[in-house]
Specification:
Elements lengths: L19 H13 L6 H13 L7 E4 L2 H11 L7 E4 L5 H9 L3 E4 L11 H7 L4 E5 L10 H11 L2 E5 L7 E2 L2 E2 L6 E5 L12 E5 L2 H10 L8 H5 L20 H12 L1 H19 L14 E2 L5 E4 L2 H4 L3 H10 L15 H7 L7 H9 E4 L7 H22 L8
Helix pairs in contact: 1-9, 2-9, 3-4, 3-7, 10-15
This protein binds pyridoxal-5'-phosphate (PLP).
Length: 403
């Protein structure tokens, strides 16, 4: 097999684009000796609020989106055991946050075209115990928020939006994360804005965000900057049993400069996305649906579907073949019910969410980082063409393919 071997560098999936400004800011932060939650976190919160068209009092920085989801679920004040409807096509963190808040996750299958939760499946999953919906704007594509919010209003449900992929997403002119009670964002190393690890909670109600802020720091009434900062020592009071979820200034130092380039990076990913769409249109692989009218896609993941019957190669063999060509890929995601914990605890079976199960078996996320050069992008395209050509010739009687 003619693979690139060790001659070309491995293309790491989701590798972030880090520039000198954030390196300098991290150094300045270290030199300031204020590493924990302080003025840089406050600036990052102000900048993020401005980007999302919110007030600074409507956002709270935390140390991951997982933390943001957990705190939002707790701050939603739902009776123990209440059911929260979410999607099976998500990262485990969405479901775990529901569980850790003492609530019960219920899955509603996705629309196979959008890969986002299907509003009709939400309606079908509602019981007298349903209290909230946790939609995930999958890959950066907005969920059908008119329909989701109409269901929430009809049944008096809370809505906590998982916006881990959706910093730049809009739906009918409104930012993802601002429809529901809470929106939860991720700045994990592969995300559209990175801080290494990091997250942000946004909220419609300032009171909810004030509560989330307290919950995210042990339940204390004042953070470290307000205790030890330059305005003089202030006592704090513990007003509930909170968590240790605060963002550090060291993380915000990266985020401030990443956020300043969010639109530039989005444009680059859009260009890569469009190049992939043109390059793959004659191949037997499934491609992402075009963004819906009057929405903005965040272009976080570019996922293709490898249906073995059409492509002549199984998805996992395709992943191995990409790896052999020194190209990193991702799987977003095996559907949630594929994992043994959920099967054992809730009796879930993948077949109960057939659309998510099929996606989970066929999906491959291609590199989409703004760090990709044009040559990197062409390398990805060539690799895919090559793998599919070999698979097809093998199918037609001249077996050549092995990963
Ligand atoms: C859909 C989704 N939700 C939640 C998370 C959790 O984000 P974090 O790693 O910031 O906790 C992720 C991260 O991969 C995600 O993709």
């Amino acid at each position: 097999m003619d693979t690139a071997g060790d001659r070309v560098p491995f293309l790491i999936f989701g590798s972030p684009l880090i520039e000198q400004a954030e390196i300098d800011e991290v150094v300045a932060c270290m030199q300031s000796s204020w590493l924990g939650t302080g003025p840089r976190v406050a600036q990052f919160e102000r900048d993020f609020a401005a980007y999302q068209g919110l007030q600074p009092s409507q956002v709270a920085a935390v140390n991951s989106c997982t933390a943001a989801l957990h705190v939002s679920m707790v701050a939603s004040d739902l009776p123990a055991g209440s059911e929260v409807i979410t999607t099976p096509m998500t990262f485990c963190a969405s479901v775990n946050a529901i569980i850790h808040a003492g609530l019960t996750p219920v899955l509603a299958d996705v629309d196979p075209a959008t890969q986002c939760i299907d509003p009709a499946a939400i309606e079908a999953a509602i019981t007298p115990h349903t209290r909230a919906i946790l939609p995930v704007h999958f890959a950066g594509r907005a969920c059908e928020m008119d329909a989701v919010m109409a269901i929430a209003r009809k049944h008096d449900l809370r809505v906590i939006e998982d916006c881990a992929h959706a910093i730049e997403t809009t739906y009918h002119g409104k930012k993802a994360g601002t429809f529901g009670d809470f929106g939860c964002f991720s700045f994990y190393a592969t995300k559209n804005v990175v801080t290494g690890e990091g997250g942000m909670i946004v909220g419609r109600s300032e009171a909810n965000i004030a509560r989330a802020r307290v919950l995210a720091l042990h339940g204390m009434s004042k953070d470290a900057w307000h205790r030890f900062g330059d305005a003089g020592y202030k006592h704090y009071q513990v007003i509930e049993a909170g968590f240790k979820y605060n963002m550090m200034d060291l993380q915000a130092a990266i985020g401030i400069h990443q956020l300043a380039r969010v639109e530039r990076n989005w444009k680059r990913r859009e260009a890569v996305w469009n190049r992939y769409m043109r390059a793959f249109k004659d191949l037997p692989i499934g491609l992402p649906s075009p963004p819906a009218p009057d929405t903005r896609h965040a272009y976080h993941l570019f996922t293709i579907m490898i249906d073995e019957a059409r492509c002549g190669i199984a998805r996992d063999d395709f992943l191995n073949a990409m790896n052999a060509r020194r190209i990193g890929t991702g799987v977003h995601y095996l559907s949630v019910p594929e994992h043994p914990y959920y099967q054992q605890r809730f009796g879930w079976k993948p077949e109960q969410s057939p659309n998510a199960m099929k996606i989970g078996h066929e999906t491959v996320s291609l590199p989409l980082s703004p760090k990709l050069t044009d040559a990197d992008v062409e390398r990805v395209i060539e690799a895919i063409r090559d793998i599919l050509t070999i698979a097809s010739s093998e199918r037609h009687g001249s077996p050549r393919y092995s990963a």
